[in-house]
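Researcher: If only I could read backbone structure tokens as easily as an amino acid sequence. Walk me, if you will, through where the backbone shape changes along the chain. I have put the entry right below:
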Amino acid sequence: MAEERLFCFGLGYSARFLARHLQAQGWQVAGTVRSQPDRAALEAIGIAAFLFDGQAPMDAAGRAALADSSYILSSVPPDDKGDPVERHHRADFAALGDCRWVGYLSTSGVYGDHGGGWVDEATPPTPISRRGVRRLAAENIWRSLGDRAGLPVHIFRLAGIYGPGRSPLDAVRAGQARRIAKPGQVFSRIHVADIARALVASMARPRKGAIYNLCDDCPASSSEVIAYAASLLGQDPPPEVPLDEADLSPMARSFYSENKRVRNRLMHVELGVELAFPDYKAGLASLLDRP
């Protein structure tokens, strides 16, 4: 049986977790990074890495690795000109032969603000932030690419990502955690291991044009989550600060302009995903003794 091959545009936090998971199952993984040190680090663990900064296409070796892959994932963010992967490599995608699955990692931010109400994949996207508008435009670019090239493109709208080395526990330990008080405000989130679990499930059940929300089962306020993280560490939680008094960057403040609960039923029912960490309490407990 031929080896399965995955190519990842943007081997960042989530894609690297997926790559390591698939490597353990015997897959060959290749993808792009932005710097030579990242390239060397990945090649040291058996991942063929190619430089791509969104300003110019990959070299011939990178394009050959792409052409040799049956599964392709992009987590590269859009820019003010659209999607850099599609812009520089649309001809390479059009020439792909046996491509079984293409995934694009988007964000639940495309839904905009719903006053704390529930949204699902049937909810019309109404982004209000600049990044949400860009992501929705990128989704449409990828869907159009799939239609033109006959590729099975899937869109994954991710909630806030946490996991090893990137969680409220790390923020509390570093003394950087803040509890922002905005009555009724909630966020959805997902452990990086469950992102990988959902992507693998989709690879096994491709459905061209599918859109999936990836999040856990328990939307909650960031203040509640930080307080729980502090309790796991045996610390007092930081005091709550009203949103209008908080010293936040414009980007951080913009997250509080959107309030919604993201529903993940399609991920459960269609892909058969059983989350390893269905809520933040299970996720944070699993990370307590990890570096």
Residues 32 and 234 are 40 Å apart (CA to CA). Residues 130-149 form the longest helix (20 residues).
